[in-house]
Specification:
This protein is an alpha+beta fold. The chain is built from 9 helices and 11 strands. The protein has helices spanning about 1-20, 20-25, 30-65, 70-100, 120-140, 170-175, 260-290, 325-330, 335-354, and strands at about 110-115, 145-150, 155-165, 180-185, 195-205, 220-225, 240-245, 250-255, 305-310, 315, 320-325.
């Protein structure tokens, strides 16, 4: 590890020098590439310097152990014991930093929330999850755009699809995919009985055109009149769009915009991300066959989290984490949950790399 870290430090030093090179400063593309690499290496270099300093101090203390002074030898022995603990901790931290990054982590995300079992209460819970993610996005400084929605009259959603744009969005949101279950007394319940409902969340990395080339001949595009809440244009113009991807059978509909052109653009954006997600799922299945990880599967049929309102409790079943701060979590305070899931994922990755 020492030799590898020294190579990384040398590479980081080279990048630093290049960033001040006038020819690089005038080449915007090259400058952006170097800045990205610099940002990725910086946390590794900081830990590497700390680690190498610990190794150097251990080496110096080893010389003292061979010396004649008994008091100094005792102090050196005690310091070495402490430094060995630091060395082990730093090694684990550096191994995690050196794990291969998911190239999709820096992408924007498309989030799809659908009401599951539980009728109107499930639709209301889907709306609660949407508001939770809106508030989390606000805390992170991300931009949110609704791509498609199917609202019911009492303020719930049968389905809502939205895009989150910002720094590291998919990397933060990817562990939210799965079945979210709620246990609470519905507002419509007169006898005070607790009901269990569910909603499904799918988090997809936003696919750009360079990520995925869609053959127009493989698409069937239908237009139809919008239905539901939507203003004066509803049922008057065929502005709603349905796109079917013939090879996979994937169907995307969009009717939120008055413009057929805008609905088509949004539907294509959703379709492209779903197709990219299919490709990622195939790739991850190959990896998962070699290394099973509950956190990283993203299986949307699996129950991942329970929100119990009477007990003010949220339990993430993948990592057996229970937090008694449900009200704060519903207000977008998701950092503790997401960080714990990232740690668990990294530990699984480390096991797989050994």
């Amino acid at each position: 590890m020492k030799a590898r870290l020294q190579e990384i430090i040398a590479k980081f030093s080279e990048i630093n020098n290049e960033l001040y090179d006038p020819s690089v400063l005038n080449d915007q593309k090259r400058y952006i590439e170097l800045m990205k690499e610099h940002k990725e290496l910086q946390p590794i270099v900081e830990k590497a310097n700390e680690y190498l300093k610990v190794l150097e101090t251990i080496e110096q203390d080893q010389f003292i152990l061979d010396g004649p002074d008994l008091d100094l030898r005792q102090m050196a022995h005690e310091e070495i014991e402490e430094l060995k603990k630091q060395e082990k901790t730093l090694e684990e931290e550096i191994k995690i930093l050196l794990l291969p990054k998911d190239p999709a982590d820096d992408k924007n995300a498309i989030v799809e929330i659908r009401a599951g079992t539980g009728g109107d209460e499930a639709a209301l819970f889907a709306a609660d999850l949407y508001r939770m993610y809106v508030k989390y996005a606000e805390k992170k400084g991300w931009k949110l755009e609704i791509l498609s929605s199917n609202e019911i009259g009492i303020g719930g959603f049968k389905e809502i699809i939205f895009q989150l744009s910002g720094v590291g969005v998919f990397g933060n949101m990817k562990f939210e995919s799965g079945v979210h279950r709620v246990q609470r007394v519905p507002v419509t319940e007169t006898s005070g009985r607790i009901h269990t409902s569910a909603a499904t969340v799918a988090v997809l990395p936003e696919a750009e055109e360079v990520d995925l080339d869609i053959n127009p001949e493989e698409l069937r595009i239908d237009t139809y009149r919008s239905s539901g809440a939507g203003g004066q244009h509803v049922n008057k113009t065929e502005s709603a769009i349905r796109i079917t991807h013939l090879p996979t059978g994937l169907v995307v509909t969009c009717q939120d915009e008055k413009s057929q052109h805008k609905n088509k653009a949004k539907a294509l954006k959703i379709l492209r991300s779903r197709l990219l997600d299919l490709k990622r799922a195939e790739h991850e299945k190959v990896i998962a066959d070699k290394r099973r990880s509950m956190v990283s599967t993203g299986d949307r049929s699996a129950k991942i989290r329970t929100y119990n309102f009477p007990q003010d409790r949220v339990t993430d079943h993948r990592i057996n984490l229970t937090l008694y701060k449900l009200q704060y979590i519903m207000e977008g305070d998701l950092s503790e949950l997401i960080e714990a899931l990232e740690v668990a994922h990294n530990m699984e990755m480390l096991k797989g790399s050994n």
